[in-house]
Design brief:
Length: 950
């Protein structure tokens, strides 16, 4: 039997035990995150898994389930189903192939389990989030960094990984970004298996084939290591190597950059930590991004030491964190064991009390329990203080990382601003040169035109010899100035990538022989021996004569310029590289090139020490080298001071398909070449003594006056000083022909032509464009706008005059053709002719429709007809006269009689009724007009028709 005091103590112990049980920490909820990866081999995959485990270690409530398919897509699909069956709340999947896991992801979607794709997408759209790098951005960043290191000029070899979406996207980004740098060319590609050895034989052969290679871009650091081994064996330490991954640790990208085995490595984040963070947001029902694209940075000698130190520091701190977490787990285990022991002790004490233990034993047990709880509380306080210190350390680390990231971003932005500033300044310089070169062509027109006319005109024979000599001197120097202007324009085209190679199959020996023969007279005058020594009679290959003509012309000009009297110039042509290449050598015995000038002779506008008699512009050799490179070739030289110089042009026999052409040059591009043109009777007006009207639109007053003066002896001439005024004059006067400049302030020549062609009043007027723009694509643009002839300044005045005569003669023939068509239409059925989209035909259709709508009116006037069509009376008369060669009144009568012919086929209408229907008030006048047109009276026409029908 228990005493009342013992019973009270027993109740106190029971209530104390219940309170302790209630105060025990409630276990946190447990989530399962499943991770399925295609393969775990490789440092980058290991870094991905390590990052995920590192992030999970901060969340004890997470159970992390991993599966490795070891490269087998079918096995990975089965493992995804296993993780779903294991109760995974979120799936993180790193697929190997796009199509292999689509069915498994669809199954997860049906079960309501979110799927996070890591590093690669699949064909299934039912995924919750994607975490991975921008492979196309990595390729583009590699291209921009390569262009920066190569100064936008060089040759590159690309090493691709085994075929996959990652390799394809990196290659596409790299190729697209390189299009901005036309001086950089990818000479070859090698496909590896993401390892260091399989690519080496193919890369060795490629580098031996293209010894001019400057840089190698590998899609991974491991393949970059293989490329380094190949370059080391070939002795090519000058080749720069760029890899991808940028991981810390032995043998990875950071170590390769620091040791000089690679020029740079692009950091490609494994994304493990980010994937776990997105999974936690999904589990905790927080907002998250569906597409999480990880950034990349370039790791090179500038920042590798800082980044490696950061990585080492982070690894050290992570190790410290893991030690603290291990200590925390140990303390938590101790705490759990102590709590279990305490509960057992309380149960024992309770049993002892129930069995009749004494009150003293119960009191001593209570004191012991209290002391144990106090010690446990002290231990908990120590743990809490340690956790606080650890959190503070983590905050310091995060602040340091944030500061370093800000510094890296600031440096990157500064570099980008400097690059953009340099690009803008370069573009402004090139635009200045181009505009300045175009402006020079206008005064050259005013110089060469009169000079050519004086030398070749009817009064040329009367010139004194001294005057003819002086004029010849002016012509030669004007042509020299025009050559310099053309070189500036070629320089601009090469810089902006607008000069394209259009090669055709040709004989290099015959081509070079023609050029050498053109220099033979000048060589004889300077007493220089010019020898041509081809190694073979013929040397076929793909050549662009327009490009190579400028190259060899500059080389021969320089050789002749710097070779003294009694010297010799030798031109040799021979096959090279076992018939795979062509070589042309130009050697002279001149003064040679100084050693200090040799590194700079191919730079634009560089001029070394030159004699006063041979002063140049500094553009010839730079232009030659740029054109040879454009032709996929190479220009080299050697020189000894006082003994002469040798320049060698090496060209490939074969060229890529995009550089070949079999099409002939469009006729429109050669319209400024002189030719024999027929001069015929122009129009009915000319035959009657009325000269054609020519409108000259030119903003340069001197050129305007010069062209008008040359045309006034042959035509009536009207002038305008700008496009807007000229367009209005053209609409008011309806001239027979227009001569218009292209580059004018306000309304340009191309816009004037476009508006002329769009207006019914002026759509028929021939237009000759004058311009300083000489590029073929600019000439095509002028012809496409509607110009009939495209002449480039400076032009031959005689050729301009003959072009005008020919265009007016062609228009006269067109009038006759149109009249014959109208006659045929009058004999055909009304629906025989289909509508023509030509503007002049559209005008005729509108004019005919307006006449037919007022056909019954006997008082229809030309003024009313012109007002209905938006013309003045004069404009309508000149338009109809220009298109049809007849008057408006005659055409109205033609339409009336053609309608009458149709109505006469209906025997229910009398001839008088038909006359009234087509606007005739007099039966006799109608009959006479009908018989004059069709050589038969209306009654005879109807009778014949009825007889034919019967």
């Amino acid at each position: 039997m228990l005493y009342p005091s013992c019973l009270r103590r027993l109740l106190v112990l029971v209530s104390l035990l219940g309170s302790l049980a209630a105060c025990a920490p409630t276990p946190p909820p447990t989530y399962r995150i499943g991770f399925s990866q295609s393969v775990s081999a490789g440092d980058w995959r290991e870094a991905m898994l390590a990052g995920m485990k590192r992030e999970v270690s901060f969340h004890p409530e997470i159970q992390f389930l991993t599966r490795d398919a070891q490269g087998n897509s079918r096995q990975q699909q089965q493992q995804v189903h296993d993780l779903l069956d294991a109760g995974a709340d979120v799936l993180v999947v790193a697929p190997n192939e796009e199509h292999a896991l689509s069915s498994a992801i669809e199954e997860a979607y049906r079960r309501g389990v979110p799927v996070i794709l890591l590093d690669r997408h699949t064909t299934s759209p039912h995924y919750a989030a994607y975490v991975g790098g921008d492979n196309a951005g990595v390729g583009a960043a590699a291209a921009r960094y390569a262009a920066l290191r190569l100064q936008q000029r060089g040759r590159i070899v690309e090493i691709l990984g085994s075929p996959s979406s990652v390799s394809a996207e990196r290659h596409r980004g790299f190729a697209q970004a390189l299009r901005a740098y036309p001086e950089i060319r990818v000479v070859g590609e090698v496909v590896g298996d993401w390892g260091a050895t399989s690519l080496q034989p193919a890369l060795s052969r490629l580098l031996q084939t293209y010894p001019e290679t400057d840089l190698i871009f590998a899609h991974s650091d491991l393949m970059a290591q293989g490329a380094y081994e190949v370059c080391r064996r070939l002795g090519r330490k000058d080749i720069r190597i760029i890899g991808v991954d940028g991981l810390p640790g032995p043998g990875n990208g950071m170590e390769m950059v620091q040791q000089g085995r690679a020029t740079a490595s692009l950091f490609y984040s494994p994304g493990g930590e980010e994937a776990i963070r997105v999974a936690l947001k999904i589990l905790h029902h927080q907002a998250y991004e569906r597409e999480n694209i990880l950034g990349t940075i370039v790791i090179d000698s500038v920042n590798v030491l800082t980044l490696q130190q950061q990585a080492t520091k982070v690894a050290s701190q992570q190790a410290g964190i893991e030690q603290q977490q291990q200590l925390l787990r140990t303390l938590q285990a101790t705490y759990t064991n102590q709590r279990t022991a305490l509960y057992g002790l309380l149960a024992t004490l309770l049993a002892a009390v129930v069995l009749g233990a004494s009150a003293w034993r119960a009191a001593r047990s209570n004191r012991r329990i209290n002391r144990e709880l106090a010690r446990q509380n002290e231990a908990n306080d120590v743990i809490n203080r340690e956790l606080v210190r650890q959190n503070e350390a983590n905050d310091v680390i995060n602040r340091q990382l944030s500061t370093q990231n800000e510094e890296i971003r600031a440096q990157r932005n500064q570099i980008a601003e400097l690059a953009e500033q340099a690009r803008v300044e370069t573009e402004a310089k090139l635009r200045f040169f181009t505009n300045f070169s175009h402006e020079l062509r206008t005064p050259l027109t005013l110089i060469m035109g009169p000079v050519e006319e004086m030398l070749t005109g009817p009064h040329g024979a009367a010139l004194l010899p001294s005057h003819r000599h002086d004029l010849g001197l002016v012509r030669r120097n004007t042509q020299r100035l025009l050559q310099l202007v053309n070189q500036l324009l070629d320089f601009r085209k090469i810089e902006v990538g607008k000069m394209a190679v259009q090669a055709r199959e040709d004989d290099l020996v015959a081509f070079v022989r023609e050029l050498v023969e053109t220099f033979e007279p000048a060589a004889r005058v300077q007493q220089v021996a010019l020898l041509f020594q081809p190694a073979v009679p013929q040397l076929p290959g793909w050549l662009d004569r327009n490009v190579l003509d400028k190259v060899f012309f500059n080389l021969l000009s320089n050789a002749l310029k710097y070779t003294p009297a009694g010297g010799q110039i030798t031109v040799r042509v021979w096959p090279a590289d076992d018939g795979q290449a062509l070589q042309v050598e130009v050697a002279d015995t001149g003064r040679g090139i100084r050693p200090q000038d040799s590194p700079h002779i191919f730079e634009w506008f560089y001029q070394g020490e030159q004699p006063a008699t041979a002063k140049g512009s500094g553009m010839g050799l730079a232009l030659a080298q740029g054109l040879v490179r454009l032709h996929q070739g190479n220009l080299t030289f050697s020189s000894q001071l006082g003994q002469g110089s040798t320049f060698i042009v090496t060209l490939p026999c074969e060229l890529p398909a995009e550089l070949r052409t079999t099409a002939a040059l469009p006729e429109a591009l050669a319209l400024d070449e002189p030719r024999a043109l027929p001069i015929e009777d122009l129009t009915a007006e000319t035959a009657a003594g009325q000269e054609p009207l020519v409108l000259v639109i030119e903003d340069n007053a001197d050129v305007n006056e010069f062209v008008a003066r040359k045309l006034q002896p042959h035509f009536r001439v009207q002038t305008a000083a700008d496009g807007s005024t000229g367009l209005q004059l053209a609409k008011d006067l309806i001239p027979d022909l227009i001569v218009c400049d292209v580059m004018m302030p306000g309304l340009s020549g191309l816009e004037v032509v476009a508006q002329l062609r769009a207006d019914w009043r002026t759509s028929h007027v021939p237009v000759i464009l004058l311009t300083a723009r000489t590029a073929p694509e600019q000439q095509v643009e002028g012809v496409q706008a509607g110009a009939d002839v495209y002449l480039t300044k400076p032009f031959n005045p005689t050729f301009l005059l003959e072009s005008i005569h020919t265009l007016l003669a062609n228009r006269a023939r067109q009038h006759e053709h149109t009249r014959r068509q109208l006659g045929a239409a009058a004999q055909a059925t009304p629906d025989a002719a289909a509508p023509d989209p030509n503007p002049d035909q559209a005008f005729l259709q509108a004019l005919t429709a307006q006449i037919e709508s007022d056909l019954t009116r006997t008082d229809l006037t030309v003024e009313e007809l012109a007002q209905a069509l938006g013309f003045s009376r004069t404009q309508l008369y000149r338009k109809v006269k220009a298109v049809l060669g007849t008057s408006v009144t005659d055409y109205i009568q033609l339409v009336r009689l053609r309608k009458a012919r149709e109505l006469l086929l209906n025997d229910k209408l009398t001839i008088t009724a038909v006359a009234y229907e087509v606007g005739y008030t007099s039966h006799s006048y109608f009959s006479n007009s009908f018989k004059a047109r069709y050589q038969v009276s209306p009654s005879e026409f109807r009778a014949r028709h009825l007889a034919d029908s019967a």
